[in-house]
Q: What sequence folds into this?
């Protein structure tokens, strides 16, 4: 019989000793760890040149693809300098995307690393996840990144899911990050401007990942749209992300953060429906706003809508 973790994926203890909800990741701003302002970014005190609503919901210091091999020493040194300066209770959620187990060990040896909320594990597979997780204390959340050729195999992803569940490692996974650019690289392709991730060559793969992981309690985050000047396509992509159950959006530019915040706000009529569905004495089936509401099957959606409203607010008007 397949064993199952008693703790749901995505509900794990953070560096703040509190439960993290994957919805809190929101706009996850990736920044190379070579930058000299890592502490200011992590404390939320850096100004972003007049761009409105630019405080990210989560920040990922990157020691991997955004850092040239010859600059890794500089990146590690600047991260080591910044971590003790981070203040608990200030700024966004903070993570480090390590390069390999060796750089993970370096970070875990730095004073102040407990000011982080967890780690992003690159190019995660069954083969390397256990190596990473034996180094990281069990109370620290991790975000494995799905960005290797195994991701294109449904059987491979089902095997990864069963490994995480059967081993008990699933309780340590805050979310699974989809590495869109690495997956496209494996196809010798690049994102097409004006086309969302759900309209391009990865559409089937993302649908497969959603069906493979979401029903088992895992969370999936959405890849970056690197054309940061095209906010219209980003808005459309965020709408499609939410329709497919993806939680959290990788961003690379301050201009993208406000779009994520606005897109994560809940429509007023959806909030009304969610509250009605969750009423203890709600009918088994009832009509509201011209739509059927069925608490037995709509409860998960309603609970998610309420959590989004609490974190990101409500937008008025029709869908």
A:
């Amino acid at each position: 019989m397949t064993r199952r973790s008693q703790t749901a994926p995505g509900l794990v203890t953070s560096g703040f000793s509190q439960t993290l909800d994957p919805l809190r990741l929101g706009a996850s701003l990736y920044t190379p760890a070579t930058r000299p302002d890592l502490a200011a970014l992590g404390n939320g005190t850096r100004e972003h040149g007049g761009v409105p609503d630019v405080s990210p919901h989560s920040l990922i210091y990157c020691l991997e693809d955004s850092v040239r091999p010859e600059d890794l020493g500089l990146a590690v040194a600047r991260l080591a300098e910044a971590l003790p300066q981070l203040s608990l209770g200030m700024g966004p959620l903070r993570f480090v995307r390590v390069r390999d187990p060796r750089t993970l060990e370096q970070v875990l040896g730095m004073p102040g690393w407990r000011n982080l909320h967890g780690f992003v594990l690159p190019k995660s597979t069954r083969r390397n996840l256990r190596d990473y997780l034996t180094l990281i204390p069990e109370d620290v959340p991790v975000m494995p990144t799905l960005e290797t050729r195994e991701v294109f195999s449904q059987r491979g992803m089902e095997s990864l899911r069963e490994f995480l569940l059967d081993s008990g490692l699933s309780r340590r996974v805050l979310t699974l990050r989809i590495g869109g650019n690495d997956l496209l690289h494996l196809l010798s392709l690049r994102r097409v401007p004006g086309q969302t991730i759900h309209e391009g060559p990865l559409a089937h793969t993302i649908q497969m990942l959603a069906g493979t992981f979401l029903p088992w309690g895992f969370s999936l985050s959405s890849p970056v749209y690197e054309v940061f000047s095209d906010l219209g396509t980003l808005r459309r992509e965020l709408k499609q992300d939410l329709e497919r159950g993806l939680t959290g959006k990788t961003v690379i530019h301050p201009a993208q953060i406000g779009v994520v915040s606005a897109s994560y706000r809940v429509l007023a009529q959806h909030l009304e429906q969610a509250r009605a569905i969750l009423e203890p004495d709600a009918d088994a089936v009832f009509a509201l706003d011209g739509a059927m509401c069925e608490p037995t099957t709509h409860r998960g959606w309603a609970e998610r809508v309420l959590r989004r409203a609490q974190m990101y607010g409500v937008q008025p008007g029709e869908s």
Observations:
- The two ends are 44 Å apart (CA to CA).
